[in-house]
Design goal:
The chain has about 300 residues and is an alpha/beta fold. It has helices at about 10-25, 35-45, 50-75, 100-105, 110-120, 125-140, 185-200, 200-210, 235-240, 250-260, 260-270, 285-290, and strands spanning about 30-35, 85, 90-95, 140-145, 155-160, 170-175, 220-225, 245. The chain folds into two domains: about 10-110, no CATH class; about 115-290, Trna Endonuclease, Chain: A, domain 1, CATH 3.40.1350.10.
Length: about 300
């Protein structure tokens, strides 16, 4: 980022992205941080002279705190406890602070969430298919099948809700890993593939694999886009307008951590790694539920 340190908007965005999703939401997070000092140091590492960094950290700090509050509200809207909170003008308490709830009045993130989040966001490509399968099983899906591969026509996993009021709903999942936030164009591209799938013979094959070809319940489709990273604001907007159910790594980790642990996930992944090849006839739900210690009956 050297050469761009004089842009306040870019500096704030970069700092909060790295602090919130790399430094604060991390197993080695510190209980307390001086945000202005952290911001100054970030500006220095971005190429600014130390004296200029001091000046800009003071000048941009009011804007920084406003943007920080917007980012923290995003955690609220996603249904996840905030990882940090300003306790005075410059000091931030993180989820690791022993008096976090007493001072902020908010529930802290759990250590198990941090461990699971750290694991989820580092899964890449085919390994992330395993994470997606776990999410579908938590949603009550059975069977859950991996379709990612040659000729999949835009579906990486397919699943059927097995019980309850929404039984026989079909879930079609796009799995995407990236080091950058998912863009609007990416959502549009993948949704276009899904729209084509709906009218193709492949959809009949998928429905047959899930036992939906002659369902006495009827059937409805839900298109899901799961990622090990975040979705950009424009990607969220277009997903809402198109009817795409998106789940970022923070949300995925939150629901997984409520039901299982990182150790269970790692053990289950090791035992199921050979089952991650394309095969609409292989039901991962049967094998994964006991490995994850799930009882969803």
């Amino acid at each position: 980022m050297s050469g761009h340190w004089d842009s306040g908007k870019d500096m704030i965005a970069g700092f909060l992205r790295e602090m919130l999703l790399a430094k604060v939401v991390a197993p080695d997070c510190q209980p307390k941080l001086n945000i202005q000092t952290e911001f100054r140091d970030y500006i220095v590492t971005s190429g600014a002279p130390k004296f200029s960094a001091e000046q800009h950290a003071i000048l941009w700090y009011p804007q920084l705190t406003m943007v920080l509050e917007e980012r923290l509200k995003d955690w609220d809207e996603l249904g996840i406890p905030r990882p940090m909170e300003l306790s005075d003008q410059f000091t931030c308490l993180t989820w690791r602070h022993p008096k976090y709830t007493k001072v902020t009045g908010r529930d802290p993130l759990a250590q198990n969430y941090i461990d699971v989040y750290d694991w989820v966001r580092t899964r890449k490509e085919r390994d992330f298919l395993f994470v997606c399968a776990c999410v579908l099983i938590l949603a009550g899906a059975d069977p859950v099948c991996i379709t990612d591969g040659r000729g999949d026509e835009g579906a990486d996993l397919i699943a059927r809700l097995a019980k309850g009021l929404m039984r026989s709903a079909m879930l079609v999942v796009q799995s995407k890993t990236s080091s950058d936030p998912i863009s609007r164009d990416m959502v549009l591209l993948e949704y276009g593939k899904y729209a084509g799938l709906l009218m193709s013979p492949k959809m009949i094959e998928y429905r047959r694999a899930l036992g939906l070809e002659h369902s006495s319940d009827g059937s409805a489709n839900c298109y899901m886009f799961l990622s090990n990273t975040e979705f950009s604001p424009s990607a969220r907007d277009v997903a809402s307008r198109l009817g795409v159910l998106i789940r970022c790594s923070r949300q995925i980790a939150f629901w997984l951590a409520a039901q299982t642990t990182r150790m269970q996930l790692e053990t289950a992944f090791t035992q199921c790694q050979q089952d991650l090849d394309q095969n609409p006839e292989t039901n991962l739900a049967t094998k994964l539920r006991p490995l994850l210690g799930l009882n969803l009956s």
